[in-house]
Predict the structure.
Amino acid sequence: MSKTVRRIIPFGSGDIPAVQSWLEDMAEKGLFFKECGLLFAKFTRGEPKKMRYRLDFCDVVACDIPDEKKELYEQSGWHVVGDYNSDLVVVCTDEPDAPEIYTDPELLVKPLKKISGKLLASWLVFWLLYSWVDFGTLTTEVVLGDSSFVRYLLDFNTLYFIGLCLLSLLLLFEAIYHFVGWLRVRKLIKKLKNGEELPQGERRSFRAAVGKVLCPLAVPAVILWGVHLFFIGYPIGLNIGEPIKDIGSMPFPTPAELGIECGGSCNNYGDEHSDVLASEVAEYTHSNDYYGKDAFRYEVRYYDMRTQSMAKTLYADFVASASSFDPKQYALFADEIHKSNNAGCWDGEYMPQITARRFELDGAELTLVRDRFADSDYCIEQILCIRFENQVEYVLYQGDGSIEDYAQDFVDCLKKEV
């Protein structure tokens, strides 16, 4: 058995009475304080005995305690053990008659103010980090009602969202922990200024339990927050899965299978992945780079949801988002598009004419949305939303003909998956 053991440090430097009681309790268990690191304290095994530990302040630089200070302690029956977080000198004695090392409590005020400043700075840092955890469009879309929570999670990545929630809670608890520590040190300083003695023998089991969790996690929490910065603005990138190797095997038809010609050179790509809320998510795009009359767009989003309830929520969300728009935002967007490509199709002064029709087909519920976004017959986007049991498909089409003519083909593909 090793003669040296490590234990998580449960208290900060400013919690002097609790630290002293903790070290005394460890001695009664046969573990005697040796040295202190960033997160762990080292103890040497020995025969259990009753000890008194005290924490004193002096200029502790690189764990080097002045010799004259050591001699002063030894003359009073105390022995220097080491330092605690480079803020405190740890001394101990097994002599019950050894006098207390404190002569003037007011001498502790200045170093305690230094520790108080550290705790206040830590509280501010953790509070700011907590405030700056980025949840993407959670506020702008979900809270304001522009999107359902289910759709937000699918776009954002559910596991990533859960991870951010846990990180956010950890940062909040760290902020509270350091703030309470700062209040405790300020209270102790006030007592010492009023001439009161430093309290001894305090035992804080709950505080120790909290400290054993939060103290070791403080640094990892900051590191994880820094890592999450790399994903700000690109949360959907976490959902990019494997490229679709066989488009023909997917639960939706391709333009070629529908007999639709895109005209000109078209780009097509797709990927598929899974999510906590959906066993399969696939996205497919087949489009050209033209605007106006020759434009062609065929986009499909497919979701195999875990439950029918979530499928209904996602379907309703797609229908609602396709059937409505913000006139001011639309005007700005259309004007920017019009200026960038100069195609004459998008016009910020023209308000879209949106029609929606719901119908059922072979056990599936469908909604067809036609969005005429400019005063031209070829400036029309068609959106077909389909739900069959747990499966949801969102189809966006811009081209010749009506996507409704192929509704049966989409439903048949979904039924094959069941």
Notes: The mean pLDDT is 81. The CA atoms of residues 116 and 126 lie 15 Å apart. The chain has eleven helices and 14 strands. The longest helix spans residues 158-193.
